[in-house]
């Protein structure tokens, strides 16, 4: 089956998707499941324990989408986000993508993302944390979110950071 992003976007952004994330957030979630440590039962978690209620054709498309992410990163190519970054804000498509990424990161408690290299992973995931809106009352996060130049730089770093995270977790040890 070939990947059909239009079909996925139509379903994920519709009312028919009562259990899952929207299109951008789903991509962020899938990226986190690929770049980080293994997340068992990721599909069921993506749909809030209701994957069995999702149409089979959509489930196949989601598996194909995840496989394409794996393929891109396995070749050490830079992953392109499936949308244009129009706003550098928590309430934006990029913010939605980051919410999906951070959801998968936090759902993966059994595999500590930060155990491999806390400082490195912390820096590489910082843009996702900033744009996801978590810690909105944290003065440091508020300060970062008010700095448009820093936000632009962070948004631009996300695709390369995904590759770096992937390599930290999945590159053969030398």
Write structural notes for this entry:
The chain is mainly alpha-helical and 174 residues long. The chain has one domain: Up-down Bundle (Four Helix Bundle (Hemerythrin (Met), subunit A)). Helices cover 61% and strands 0% of the residues. The protein contains eight helices and no strands. The chain has helices at residues 5-12, 23-35, 42-46, 56-74, 93-107, 118-132, 139-146, 148-170. Helix 2 packs across helix 8 (148-170), helix 5 (93-107) packs across helix 6 (118-132) and helix 6 packs across helix 8. It is globular, with a radius of gyration of 16 Å. The termini are far apart. The mean pLDDT is 93.
CATH architecture: Up-down Bundle
User: Can you say what the CATH homologous superfamily is?
Assistant: YgfB uncharacterised protein family PF03695
Distance, first to last CA: 36 Å
Q: Tell me the CATH topology.
A: Four Helix Bundle (Hemerythrin (Met), subunit A)
Q: pLDDT below 50 for ≥5 consecutive residues: which ranges?
A: none
What structural class is derived from the secondary structure elements? mainly alpha
The level 1 CATH classification is: Mainly Alpha
Beta strand count: 0
Please outline the major beta sheet: none
Strand fraction band? under 5%
């Amino acid at each position: 089956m070939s990947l059909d992003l239009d079909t996925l976007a139509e379903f994920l952004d519709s009312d028919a998707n009562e259990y899952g994330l929207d299109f951008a957030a789903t991509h962020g979630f899938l990226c986190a499941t690929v770049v980080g440590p293994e997340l068992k039962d990721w599909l069921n978690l993506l749909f809030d324990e209701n994957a069995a209620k999702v149409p089979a054709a959509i489930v196949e498309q989601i598996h194909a989408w995840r496989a394409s992410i794996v393929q891109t990163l396995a070749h050490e190519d830079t992953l392109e986000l499936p949308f244009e970054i129009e706003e550098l804000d928590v309430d934006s498509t990029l913010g939605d993508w980051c919410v999906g990424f951070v959801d998968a990161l936090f759902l993966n408690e059994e595999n500590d993302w930060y155990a491999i290299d806390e400082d490195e992973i912390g820096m590489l995931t910082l843009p996702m944390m900033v744009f996801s809106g978590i810690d909105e009352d944290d003065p440091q996060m508020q300060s970062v979110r008010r700095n448009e130049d820093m936000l632009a730089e962070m948004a631009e770093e996300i695709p390369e950071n995904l590759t770096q995270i992937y390599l930290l977790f999945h590159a053969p040890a030398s």
